[in-house]
Target: Response regulator transcription factor
Amino acid sequence: MYVVVDERASVAESYVSAFSREGFSSQSFSGNEFRDWIETTSDQDLGAVESFLIGESEARITYPDLIRSHSKAPIIALEDVKSLTQTLELFTAGIDDVVRKPVHVREIVARADAVWRRVRSGDIQMPLDERLRVFFDGRDPEVDGEPLALPRRERHILEYLVKNSKRRVTKTQIFNTIYGIFNEDVDESVVEGHMSKLRKKLRLKLGRDVIDARRYLGYQYVG
Model:
């Protein structure tokens, strides 16, 4: 899930709509709403955040310290105009990347993934099973060099599991990442259906399970 913070509701909602069109869940906040949310939300909900996108807000210089006290997710500033002074100020404050608008959400996703790779000190494009290659730019994964066509949500689940291959993630974390933490229109059990279909497709192509499922504990990509 991508969190957008901007005092201009129309701008924030335009990004939410753009993420939705690309199949990514997102949520927008004003500055005060964001501060209240991040200080009170659960660790499980925060664990679903792929990146924080900070737009116009008088207090945005203070957000990196606030976010880092709760999450390691990349922090990307969205700028309306190019300004060296402002860019340097943002980096000094702890922003991970600064992007000038307009910018396509797929570029934002790619930039966030690049930051995650540095944080995790590993090349997450090559999972433990070298026959399987996972991308994070909208392309389907490949098995033995051939594309494996996956529905959008199954692809996002696979990407999320690969990014978090060193730990087990719960059904709730997957749901929050794929559908968003405020989505009340879809039942969390839908994850089990997506996961069953994804595991079957990977098993048919690779000849074995690369996703370990444990009742009550969740899922882990094991390669």
